[in-house]
Design brief:
There is one protein chain. The protein has twelve helices and no strands. The protein is mainly alpha-helical. α3 packs antiparallel against α4, α3 crosses α5 and α8 runs antiparallel to α11. The longest helix is centred in the N-terminal third of the chain and has 29 residues. It starts with a helix and ends in a 7-residue tail after the last helix.
């Protein structure tokens, strides 16, 4: 039997909490102050922090508007409001794929900007969406066909099959009642990442936890307990337990 699912959740919760205070939370506040929209600067900031900025070529020195980054911002700003709250992850990924393909074809990006696009969209639409990258797909057990967009779409289709958004909404409700700042979708994303690593060490998690102030430790432990109690019987967790030979949530 592999590492316990509870330890996976604890490690993921610590990572999500730290990243929220370090970048995600402040950046979402900036976007909120910019009328809830991305601009060229926020596209560059987010892409840089998430190590995908090289996909967006720098503009000529006389292009003060940073037209490539602004094009991405404008396209995503138009897309996000059009996505109904009940729309599936599969449908969203299909619409996003069209933009990703057009950016590459028109040399707005120099690669297939799948991971970066999903992250940028998350900053506009945290509810009912989650980010994609290769490690998260590994964590979910999505085969790598070598085609980035096809794997991205397969990732979201699998999440729909496992009723990811239902789990995410229920986790949001539980965590918000405890004044936890990290969205359910982001917490679940980190769980996929930790599952993929298969190296979750409870001693590492406990060591990190011990370095935090008592109030933060208590908050994290409560979030771990809430995640376990809310999602223990969910298809997503059953899938991860079987896929990675994890000790069950007991």
């Amino acid at each position: 039997m592999g590492v316990g699912m509870r330890n996976i959740i604890k490690s993921a919760t610590i990572a999500a909490y730290g990243w929220w205070w370090f970048f995600d939370g402040p950046e979402k506040s900036r976007i909120h102050s910019d009328m809830g929209q991305l601009n060229a600067r926020s596209v560059r900031r987010i892409s840089s922090r998430y190590s995908v900025v090289r996909a967006i070529p720098k503009c000529a020195s006389n292009d003060d508007s940073d037209s490539r980054a602004q094009r991405i911002a404008d396209d995503l700003n138009r897309l996000a409001p059009s996505l109904d709250a009940t729309i599936s992850l599969t449908s969203i990924s299909a619409e996003l794929s069209k933009l990703i393909e057009s950016w590459k074809a028109e040399q707005v990006t120099n690669v297939t900007f799948a991971s970066g696009a999903t992250k940028l969209l998350w900053f506009l639409r945290s509810s009912g969406w989650t980010v994609y990258d290769a490690l998260a797909a590994d964590g979910l057990g999505v085969p790598n066909s070598g085609d980035t967009l096809n794997r991205m779409k397969a990732f979201y289709a699998k999440l729909d099959d496992l009723r990811f958004n239902t789990a995410s909404r229920q986790l949001d409700e539980t965590l918000l009642a405890r004044f936890w700042p990290v969205s359910g979708s982001r917490s679940l994303d980190y769980i996929l990442l930790e599952a993929a690593k298969k190296s979750c060490d409870r001693f590492r998690s406990d060591d990190l936890l011990s370095k935090l102030p008592q109030a933060h430790r208590a908050s994290i432990e409560q979030a771990v307990d809430a995640t376990v109690s809310t999602l223990s019987a969910r298809p997503l967790f059953d899938h991860l337990t079987d896929l990675w030979d994890l000790a069950p949530l007991d």
